[in-house]
Amino acid sequence: MSSVNTTKRGLQAEAVLALVGLLLVAINLRPALTSVSPVLKNIAAGLSLSPAAQGVLTTLPVVCLGLAAPLAPKMSRRIGPERTVFAFLILLAITLLARPLTGMVGLFVFTALAGACIGIMNVLLPGIVKRDFPTRVGLITGLYTVALNLGASLAAGATEPLRQAFGDQWQPSLVFWLVPAVIAALVWIPQLRVAHTARVRPREGHSLYRNALAWQVTLFMGLQSSLAYTVFGWLPTILQDRGVAPVTAGLALSVSILFQVVTAITTPLLGGRMKDQRAVLVGVVLLTLLGLAGCLYAPTQSLWLWIVILGLGQGGSFSMALTLLALRAPDGDTAAELSGMAQGVGYVLAAFGPLLVGLLHDWAGGWDVVGILLGLIGLGAMIVALGAGRNLLVRPHEAT
């Protein structure tokens, strides 16, 4: 009996260590993105970047999120998901070290590479959750989402104070974010001993790409992500140009991301109990647009109201985009295929948001016209939500 108890305690300890490692990895899935915008004006001044070039800088990692996503299953089948995650954690740490220290070319190259690292881990972690915690998928996914938002929020809020602490130098404030990646890699090492014989087999053909419902889900993922990465990349700059202090502007992005946690947990619970999800999808996008409009046009004295509304809207939008991947799929294999399509195509689509914002700002010399673009993106998201939110299932071998 004592040996049985010892074995159970050992298994429980392994599960706890696996969960801690998973959450630490999740914390690293956004700082490479959200740490740039609070010091973007300093980077632009130091490297003489035009607004268009700044738009490219904020767009590159999002493009690479999508382009790298299809590589994740292939690498996972070859060396296993645990080793793939570990390899890309190490590579992420290296890119975060090199990115601010290698001049303008290195800044762009390593920013793109950081996005690719995150894109691959993005795809693998939900599968590890489903495999290792099959009876607690909802709980662990919620914790995973909270950890992801926490990492994004910390980087958004702390990077500008770090710049000031490092003698007004933006380079070390960006290098700092390799520390969480190194810690996560060290805690992840025990997972490298895990042997899983089951490997996800690729489905023959690309039938989902001929399915209208799959495209509606993918487009919702991409359009709401376009708004999200525009906020990650440009919100502090927009607020600074409106007269908000740099530290406050970075803190505003951080607070917005923190409030995403509220709806990231509650919205899927609400949406999952409804007959279909059209109303909740349209509602969270409307909240997002309302928050963006307030940040762009309302008096800055009311900034924190709009920041909270923006966070609640974007937290609900992102969590519902992930939830649709499960709700619209009839089985696990289809859910995995739909996830790959939605993340691969969706994040590439999402990258056009930050890029167009930079180009429009460069052309117009201000932010007023940007609100029209964001409104059109939000309108597109609501239109496809009316299709993606229907109580239907994607059938991989049916073109609709």
UniProtKB/TrEMBL annotation:
The chain crosses the membrane at residues 52-72, 84-101, 107-125, 137-158, 170-192, 213-235, 247-267, 279-299, 305-326, 338-357, 369-388. Pfam families: MFS_1. Residues 210-400 form the Major facilitator superfamily (MFS) profile domain. GO terms for molecular function: transmembrane transporter activity. Keywords: Membrane, Transmembrane, Transmembrane helix. SUPFAM superfamilies: MFS general substrate transporter. GO terms for cellular component: membrane. InterPro entries: CynX-like (IPR004747), MFS (IPR011701), MFS_Cyanate_Porter (IPR052524), MFS_dom (IPR020846), MFS_trans_sf (IPR036259). It comes from the Bacteria. PANTHER family: 2-NITROIMIDAZOLE TRANSPORTER, PTHR23523. This is CP family cyanate transporter-like MFS transporter. The lineage of its organism: Bacteria, Pseudomonadati, Pseudomonadota, Gammaproteobacteria, Pseudomonadales.
